[in-house]
Design brief:
CATH superfamily of the largest domain: Tetratricopeptide repeat domain
Number of strands: 10
CATH class of the largest domain: Mainly Alpha
Structural class: alpha+beta
Helix content: 40-55%
Shape: globular
Number of helices: 21
CATH topology of the largest domain: Serine Threonine Protein Phosphatase 5, Tetratricopeptide repeat
Number of domains: 3
Distance between the termini: 47 Å
CATH architecture of the largest domain: Alpha Horseshoe
Largest sheet: 10 strands, antiparallel
């Protein structure tokens, strides 16, 4: 009989070599022993040999399929291989056998979070905390899920519970600051970030401190905070881009362009750097790096959604889309961190049951190809320089009420962006000189404190039509008045990892 308990103790003590030798000897004597295979799987997991660990756990479960702990261990190894859907299945099988295991509920929540199913993740964390109310990691991670769900109130409550149980959790102070910031409590966020930084100087908290200081209009302090964040994370180009944005407002667009050039030299086509170059290049005393950067006529692609092959009329598809969006479980009014005012956002429409969204996804994917085919690769080299080897779409809906609008913004994580119009109020028409409800390209945010005149291009939205444009274009929606809802689907082409 093998001394399995002795091998387990070796693993607990981190004595991997002796444990491995003992397991090898034991398996030579009794090949295929399920307990030894599962134990070797645990060793391989600890050694970060996740694929080999999966093979061992699966082999053990073939002989003993009702061992809940092995299903849980299999799920953890699958998670580390980013095989998240398979990990979810393993965790759920473990819970079928042993539903009262808080750790497995926590692990399932992690997998659901990675799959973008945040509401289900929150429910799984809640199950873990009902079983084990002092589960610090579950409180902390539940807070992160609530942040992703744009629920800063619940996020803050979860973080504070974790802090009460274990005050010294790394980065918890930073996450509390994010929740406070998203609640509009900027002064409180600044105080929390400063306290966290006094314990452990790190770039994320320093960057977040700068963001909160900007919201308070304390731009001198914000610039100093960003520069300290850049010192702590010298390879983080997004921090450099935020510094450049501030420098434009300080009347130093030439320095901002220098930063943009440096970023583009290291990362051709980087969205945020191109946005800086466009804005700074229109400020007094500067000029555009490339006049084609603002060729709105070439770089904004407008077309109808091709639906003839789907067996429904455009009106029928738009009615189905409107119903799907208005009933979507992730629809939230004015979510924190978004540019929408007097309107609601959904989460990613492609993350769950797609319904009629699948038609839009298919047609816009094809539309990206048609858009690129219209461009001269030499003239639009800056755009093709940033073209990823592979990309995927994300989509979310925006539902605006009267006075609904979006502030000028870009999509820094994307390569191309766009919007499809599902429903447009009757009042939004050609005969309104105010252009209420139209989409406008080119105007930077007021918070950038620009001094120059910036080129603008404005379009009337039409139900059934969509735009594709470079993600570095600042764009906004002009406020409108109507009792009807303005419903659109925004989308990004995101570089795949």
């Amino acid at each position: 009989m093998h001394d399995i308990e002795s091998i387990r103790k070796q693993l607990d003590r981190g004595e991997f070599d002796p444990a491995g030798a003992a397991l090898k000897e034991a398996l030579l004597k009794t090949p295929g022993d399920e307990e030894l295979l599962a134990l070797r799987g645990s060793l391989r997991h600890l050694q970060r040999q996740f694929q080999a660990a999966v093979e061992d756990f699966e082999a053990a479960l073939l002989k003993q399929p009702d061992e809940a702990n092995w299903h849980n261990a299999l799920g953890k190894s699958l998670n580390n291989l980013q095989q998240t859907a398979a990990a979810e299945s393993a965790f759920r099988r473990s819970l079928e056998i042993e539903p009262g295991n808080a750790e497995v509920w926590h692990n399932l929540a992690f997998a659901l979070r990675a799959l973008g199913r945040h509401h289900q993740a929150a429910e799984a964390f809640s199950e873990a905390l009902q079983i084990k109310p002092d589960y610090v990691s579950a409180w902390h991670n539940a807070g992160l899920v609530y942040l992703a769900m744009d629920d800063p109130d619940q996020a803050l409550a979860a973080f504070l519970k974790a802090q009460a149980l274990a005050p010294d959790i790394p980065r918890l102070g930073t996450h509390i600051g994010v929740a406070l910031h998203n609640l509009g409590r900027y002064e409180d966020a600044v105080a929390v970030y400063r306290k966290a930084l006094s314990v452990e100087p790190e770039a994320e908290a320093q960057n977040n401190l700068a963001v909160s200081l900007q919201e308070l209009g304390r731009n001198d302090e914000a610039l100093a905070a960003y520069r300290e964040a850049a010192r702590l994370a010298p390879d983080d180009q997004e921090i450099q881009i935020k510094i450049a944005d501030l420098l434009i407002g300080f009347g130093q667009p030439d320095q901002a362009i220098d930063i943009a050039r440096q970023c583009l030299a290291r990362s051709p086509g980087r969205t945020g750097a191109l946005a800086v170059a466009v804005v700074a290049g229109q400020e007094p005393g500067c000029q555009l790096m490339d006049s084609e950067l603002l060729n709105f006529d070439k770089l904004i692609f407008q077309t109808e959604l091709a639906v003839a092959s789907h067996g429904q009329s455009p009106d029928e598809i738009n009615q189905a889309l409107a119903t799907h969006i208005l009933e979507h479980p992730t629809l939230v009014y004015e979510p924190a961190g978004h540019a929408t005012r007097h309107g609601s956002h959904t989460g990613d429409l492609l993350a769950g049951e797609k319904g009629p969204i699948a038609i839009v996804e298919k047609e816009i994917t094809a539309g990206v190809g048609r858009f690129l085919a219209t461009l001269d690769m030499k003239k639009a080299g800056f755009l093709f320089d940033g073209k990823p080897d592979s990309w995927h779409l994300t989509m979310w809906a925006v539902v605006m009420n009267a006075q609904g609008h979006q502030l000028p913004h870009i999509h820094p994580a994307a390569w191309l962006s766009g919007v499809y119009y599902v429903q447009v109020p009757e009042e939004i028409g050609d005969d309104d000189d105010s252009k209420a409800g139209w989409i406008e390209f080119g105007a930077p945010p007021q918070t950038m404190n620009c001094r120059g005149e910036h080129r603008l291009k404005i379009f009337r939205p039409v139900a059934g039509n969509y735009f594709i444009f470079p993600s570095y274009f600042y764009h906004r929606t002009i406020p409108f008045e109507s009792e009807q809802k303005r419903i659109s689907i925004a989308f990004d082409a995101i570089p795949s990892a």
